[in-house]
Amino acid sequence: MRRFAAERAKRLLNGCLLSSRSWPSASLCSSPAAAASVDSAAGPVTLDTINPKVIKCEYAVRGEIVSHAQRLQEELQMKPGSHPFEEILYCNIGNPQSLGQQPITFFREVLALCDHPLLLDNSEAPALFSSDAIERAWKILDVIPGMATGAYSHSQGIKGLRDAIAAGIAARDGFPANPDDLFLTDGASPAVHMMMQLLIRSEKDGILCPIPQYPLYSASIALHGGSLVPYFLDESTGWGLEISELKKQLEDARSKGITVRALVVINPGNPTGQVLAEENQKQIVEFCKTEGLVLLADEVYQENIYVDDKKFNSFKKIARSMGYGDKDLSLVSFQSVSKGYYGECGKRGGYMEVTGFSAEVREQIYKVASVNLCSNISGQILASLVMNPPEAGDESYVPYIAEKDGILTSLARRAKALEDAFNSLEGVTCNKAEGAMYLFPRLHLPNKAIEAAKAVKAAPDAFYARRLLDTTGIVVVPGSGFGQVPGTWHIRCTILPQEDKIPAIISRLKAFHESFMEEFRD
Amino acid sequence: MRRFAAERAKRLLNGCLLSSRSWPSASLCSSPAAAASVDSAAGPVTLDTINPKVIKCEYAVRGEIVSHAQRLQEELQMKPGSHPFEEILYCNIGNPQSLGQQPITFFREVLALCDHPLLLDNSEAPALFSSDAIERAWKILDVIPGMATGAYSHSQGIKGLRDAIAAGIAARDGFPANPDDLFLTDGASPAVHMMMQLLIRSEKDGILCPIPQYPLYSASIALHGGSLVPYFLDESTGWGLEISELKKQLEDARSKGITVRALVVINPGNPTGQVLAEENQKQIVEFCKTEGLVLLADEVYQENIYVDDKKFNSFKKIARSMGYGDKDLSLVSFQSVSKGYYGECGKRGGYMEVTGFSAEVREQIYKVASVNLCSNISGQILASLVMNPPEAGDESYVPYIAEKDGILTSLARRAKALEDAFNSLEGVTCNKAEGAMYLFPRLHLPNKAIEAAKAVKAAPDAFYARRLLDTTGIVVVPGSGFGQVPGTWHIRCTILPQEDKIPAIISRLKAFHESFMEEFRD
């Protein structure tokens, strides 16, 4: 019998992203003629006649460098040995399972049972599933109307799953959560789009965003035709968020006639990895309340904290602990099943908790959600699981904790190893990744490198990232995709390659950097 | 041991939508105070300050009447016997599994194995899964990079699954399909939004849409700020689509300064149920080619045909059979796992096949897709399955065919029974449902009823639908939500209640209609 675990391990060893086979019948349908025909297509739609907001939108995390990496990967597959590396290492995106992280067994057991509930009637089921997975599957099926996991749900998500998520939030925060405040979504991205769509009327509406920021925000603001109002995080204080900077940028935007509608805060930070201190969060809440801004809190990395002296606090907990309720602050918290120790990116689950909006505005949010009917039910189930994992005494509890701790402590070690490696490079400084999944080192590039980049019409950090990829197969995203203080250059690198690969990555990185500096040193 | 099949059957018998329980710990988190707080929320965001496009957008299929139905359902749960019916029958939306349709076993087996592939290593697996489900799961895992079903995929969807879908399309049409033309999406709705986002620059851009239409189109055009250019289907010829009408409306729109960019055709029709004849499709293709319009072909009901003399032909097959290739016609075909005999609405799977666009425009579509990273992997897998079901000789083939034929022949009987019932009502005429999942009967309402509706500021068909719901528990959507010739009134009713419930529905419907006419007869 062919075995999944062995097969998977073999592929990981061989470079997991190089081993996908073609569907056997693919050659029948994908003729070279069909592929080539695209270029000869003319048609009524041209770059000059499409929505200019689409043209304006950029999404660096899957931008030009990633397309180039995919081309290299195809070349490696067609012609092994054609490049000075054997595999492409995708450090461009927070996609843990693509780099070999294993899913939490309990979560997958429950998903499989909910996908095919007739398994519950099979007498062999207890041989294949843990008892608490079976119990949890029943609990979930019990709250799904008709036990139909293949039906559209309520547009906010299945009520019983929202109850469970609300209970999880309440347990996390120590303050009540209302299931009617939850909108379950296909990952956090559609939730962010929904809020931007609601808030942005024209380019005169602004959204305060950190710089550097996760490019979903700039892309979504561009697609909805608004203005991104930047506030700069302070690299010299570990990407500190200063209220004085928020005030300055808010006033500056207002003086230009921009109506600033919301403040985006990413905590833990992406790409910057800092974890906000409680006192700082209180100031932010106070600022939004005073200035009448919606606080859009991206809290998708709430489980990813790697330092002992920092702790995640949700903005809702902070606001409630200050005595502020629904009438004081409009607050939206985004959460996703893609991050944390679970890293279930492909499941597209997530939610937003929407508090402090009037009933009639909430109805409008509901209406927009209803146009897409509902988010996928597996993702909804998974969101309920990550907010209610196994508890002490459950059969899965001990293995669950071992899997979770194994992932989180390994991520902490990887973050530290890569941070140290970056800091050891000539002209590179790198803040600590206190949380999230990224390092965002600053490159102090020699003038010669900057000139060389100019000559090929590339930003200096894009030039560096492209060279790194072509030499080592490591894919990182240039800082220009996230925004940075003008004249400074960075790259974003995930901490996600499996731990046994880190030493090799570090030595490839060091060798590349040395030779790059050698070539361009002033 | 508690048994799923028995439990599910019991719930169906009792009215499947009334039986969902609360999550045990829900009472801890959902305090009345929290629920009430919404109304007291003020905050910086009001109806006057949100995006007016959001306000303008309407989505009748989940509109006011459905909210009312949900309130009635809650009342029935809290106080059984409080209404003259025991359950709410949701005939408002094409959501088969919510009304008791069972999923195709083979599809669910494969999904469960892909969700938890370690099952493949268990020696008990062959006791729980069919051999071809196991084989198919391996085939799918083999084409997923790293066999990681929890990773973000390529933004268009996993390449190997697109290969499989392209092979399925090629087998359906007899013309090649290119996997690079496929964009896998969370159901068809996000695909439609993507195309509207691409094509609409301002209210000066128009999209030709059938009237009646599926309100996703009007909602999406409103959200993206374009103009819906209506063309009327001819009810007297079974909702015929006349090219002369298309031309007239196109010219009329152009004379008003509207740039018409695309033509939406829904085939089989929603809400109208007609299946287009091949000759008619050829005329439509010719019209789009001549007029330089993108043809947006909603083909999600391609498996739902109930009459022997009609057959589904994809617009791509029609165009290719006319000798038209990529350079002649810009064509987008939408498909979904939510419809057909599979009806897997909750899985949110689907794709669009994008042909006849230049490489640079396709790059823009890819960019927009990449902002949301990818569609959910289970939905992607399911899309590959519905386009490649079991084949003769496979272990699952015989039960698969039995399940499929059982569903489709039953749907055909239900469509006929409900069509006959509507036609038997005084002042009601109803075209045949040749395909799709709906009937769209016309109500010739007495003046008194129209006056009574006016008095409560309701459209006459909304007034009728509300009365029907309050009296019988049957939820239908007023025709005004889909558009109709001014002065005519319709309702849309799905054919989806389980067959054993149809006689009772028909007698409730007849009794209601008689008493309604009795009350309002002129």
Automatic annotation (TrEMBL), chains A, B:
It catalyses: L-alanine + 2-oxoglutarate = pyruvate + L-glutamate. Its cofactor is pyridoxal 5'-phosphate. Keywords: Aminotransferase, Pyridoxal phosphate, Transferase. Pfam families: Aminotran_1_2 (PF00155). One of its GO terms (molecular function) is pyridoxal phosphate binding. Its EC number is 2.6.1.2. SUPFAM superfamilies: PLP-dependent transferases. Pathway: Amino-acid degradation; L-alanine degradation via transaminase pathway; pyruvate from L-alanine: step 1/1; Photosynthesis; C4 acid pathway. Transfer of C3 units between the cytosol of mesophyll and bundle sheath cells to maintain a nitrogen-carbon balance in the C4-dicarboxylic pathway. The keyword Transferase applies. Residues 150-499 form the Aminotransferase class I/classII large domain. Homodimer. InterPro entries: ALAT1/2-like, Aminotransferase_I/II_large, PyrdxlP-dep_Trfase, PyrdxlP-dep_Trfase_major, PyrdxlP-dep_Trfase_small. Belongs to the class-I pyridoxal-phosphate-dependent aminotransferase family. Alanine aminotransferase subfamily. It comes from Canna indica (Indian-shot). CDD domains: AAT_like. It comes from the Eukaryota. This is Alanine aminotransferase 2.
